[in-house]
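Hi support team,

I'm opening this ticket because the web form for multi-chain structure prediction keeps timing out on my end. I have pasted the exact lines I submitted so you can reproduce it. The total is 640 residues across two entries, so I didn't expect it to be a heavy job. Is there a limit I'm missing, or should I split the entries? Thanks in advance, R.K.
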Amino acid sequence: MEWLTKFPEMDRNGLREFKKTVDNTFTSFSRNYGEGIESFFDPLLSFLVGFEKLFLNTPWPITIFTILSICWLASRSILIVSGTLLSFLLIGYFGMWEDTMSTLAIILVATLLCICIGIPIGIAMARSNKVQTLILPILDIMQTIPSFVYLIPVVMLLGIGKVPGLIAVCIYAIPPIVRLTNLGIRLVDKDILEAAESFGANYWQKLFGVQIPLALPTIFAGVNQTIMMALAMVVIASMIGVQGLGLPVLRAISNQYLALGLMNGLAIVVLAIIFDRVTQKIGKRMQKYKSD
Amino acid sequence: MNNYIKIKSLYKIFGNNTTEALNLVKEGMSKEELLEKTNCVLGLNDINLDIPKGKIHVIMGLSGSGKSTLIRHLNRLIEPTFGEITIDGVNVLKLNNKELLEYRQKNMSMVFQKFALFPHKTIQENISYGLIVQNISEEICKEKSQFWLKRVGLEGYEKYYPNQLSGGMQQRVGLARALATDAEILLMDEAFSALDPLIRAEMQDVLIDLQLELKKTIVFITHDLDEALKIGERISILRDGSVVQDDNPQKIILNPSDKYVSDFIKDINRSRVIKAKSIMIKSISIKKENVPIIDSEMVLEEVLQEISKTKYYFVYVKNNKNKIIGKITLKQLLNGIQRPRQENKKYA
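Hello R.K., no limit was hit. The queue was backed up. Here is the completed structure from your submission:
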């Protein structure tokens, strides 16, 4: 009756062999192809580095002015703009300017990457149910798997640095935009689509003329969520060599520096709030035609 | 050009394994039985229709009778299970994808029950949508949309968005959008059903006025008999996916083909619908002086007034060339107004 009280598990040797085989296969794979894959991501690296340099080298008044103008153009709200100004002044005053700029750079690049990859995937999912059933479980995995678990293969392949950090952020942040693009397109009124069809619109005319414009508010909610998740990933990404506000937080955890942790943590929160309010305002303005 | 649109033994079955279901239907299986045995829904059952050019052809039926399904076969928004549709000699079902798109762009346009305007486009962009799809230059689009906006009485609204307009105005835009492509065929799917009665009557008049001049081939779907009688030059009545009666409006009222149709028409005010020419006795000679002469298009209510004005119990009927073509006696008038006796048998 032993099999009832003790789970009939694989014997120890077998298990060890299994783990070893998986590890060795991946190690040899990364040994053989690691460099190739790394050089594949080189353009991304130089893009990210360029972006970071731009943020860091621009004199701070110009940066603040640019950020405020973008906030104003996007939101048209004095409240948001003045809040943003105050936040950035405080961040600079407390000595977190450079880290904030690095974080901004990686968030923006990650978001751009997620939009460029995520929206086409979402469109493909909306077009075919087969693609949808294929992609949905992958998104589920990406959202639920502990981030540390996929950090392992990423680091094995690409080492420590900005690019693996960026990839980790993207893996974590891309699902909402894919899901919401798919959802937004699928929710477009069937009658309206039928009208477009009855006038002889082809697939692309329907997609770009009707479906995407009508799905835009939903897609934008996805962009908003993607940015939020990217920000949430900043601390974890700093474990594998991403500069920015995450690094001091990490240091604060290991050394129990309460003030340092709080300050940088709050700076991340402030960035998140600014991004959120601004993108939500854009989303609302996209639905201007809904109000009269 | 008597049969511009020709529909021949058209079947539509929704569900899986439609080939087997089709055979069963052709052997005479009923809609309910088919649903029970094969889990397929019979949408259209052996439709044969000829629709003439330049007329308003009304397809009428209760909800679920297949009228919206039928109209969507004409521009192939729904693909048939079996059958043939030829429009102006072109076999529509043989068109490949590209030809079909072009066919929809150039030859037919559609007006929808729930308007189906593009909420993110302005009225002007909405109206010119059919032209934009054809990559026609912006200038012409603007010009044409202006023209049609004016024709449907919405001048000055070009920069508005659809939800800023009332239902009636939105459907005017829907109509203008359909007319802007200059397509010969206009498909109207319960186009006025979502409007309140006054606006609906107004829109019917707009359509009739436009039709007097444009002479389009209009396939108009409705569940409203008054509407069908008002605008239809020919009416087909659908029931459970088959055509029960296909006739001109007067004949449908005077000779309903079965209980279903007579139930349909039983609440109609006959004296306001039936025309003098439908009940008159044909005769050419005038026998008495001072007997009123009425127009053959006059409805019975007015005929009754004319008769009651005189001491005679009959009137003469003239056609539009002022020629006497028949007469109506009081007895015929009463027969015409009286509702035909109902058989108690319930239709199967």
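A quick check on our side: The two ends of chain B are 37 Å apart (CA to CA). Let us know if the file doesn't open in your viewer.
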